[in-house]
Amino acid sequence: MRKIGIQVAESNGQAYEPAYILAPLRLATVAGGLFLAWIWTVFPYPISEHSQLRQNLGRSLYLMANYYSIVHETVRLRLRGGEGDLTSKDSPGYKLEKARLKVHAKSSMLLASLRAQSGFIKYDIPIGGKFPREQFQKIISQMQSALDFMVLINIASASFEELKQLNEREHASEWLATFQKVIKEANVTSEAVTTLLSLLSASVTSGSALPPYLHVPEPYQLTARLDAMDQDILSVRHIAEPGYSSFAVIQIGTKCMIDDLKKILAGVKGLVGELDFSYHIVSTTDSSRNTSNETVTYTKPTNARDYAGHKND
Fold first, then answer.
1. Whole-model pTM over 0.90
2. Which has fewest Cβ within 10 Å: 25, 188, 190, 197?
3. Mean pLDDT of the chain
4. Does 288 fall in a domain?
5. Which residues on adjacent β-strands are paired with residue 297?
6. Directed axis angle between helix 92-120 and helix 133-167, to 10°?
């Protein structure tokens, strides 16, 4: 190996520096470049981990509203025997099943992505205030639970279509015929759930407050409805009858799903707040009347200041 020497190395105009000086300079240059890259990765408006988590949470709520709408229509068709032949691509049941599986796959993938993103945010530097990561994780967990109960309702309602075929056989019971007749007149699901999830999705995506007086619809009291029509139809003597267990699963699944939706609503209110259109009437002799809050006010959550710092990340 031939040594060219310092004089030859400097012949092209490049200055020579010893290794103990050149090495720290190169290290400082690389560190400075990485620091600038980190700054322009975190501070620009369009993309950040916090904004992605918020946007994906809104998308997940929208997909859940879409999925529940499909489940609602599927249950309605099954109760009325209009699902048709599932092997035929033109039947309503086949189209609903295809759409339902597609939306469920998207919802499951997005929820898994949300769980991963919320885990990574734990190691982010809190610039602009503390991010409410724990509240996001609770909402994601409750959304997964609500989605699972929607799937359970869909699976349990599949037996209603089988009841129609079973009723046409020779061994069909009188109870089965009565139950099928009564169940057709009931609504085991509610369109209000789709409306609620859509409003939550829009509010989280835009970061705006929820409208006032928003509440989760109560589960349909199918038991009281069936008992009013026929008091003997829900007797324990018929517990072994086909359809009885499906009815119980749907009732329990709907109740649990509604409970999860109430927690989701409370969690979203804690993130974005709620509009308040109330006003206060005070006496003119009251010295504190000038401090009364009137007309439209905005009820902020306890951590609204922290969340607002990340809303437009």
1. no
2. 25
3. 77
4. no
5. 276
6. 160
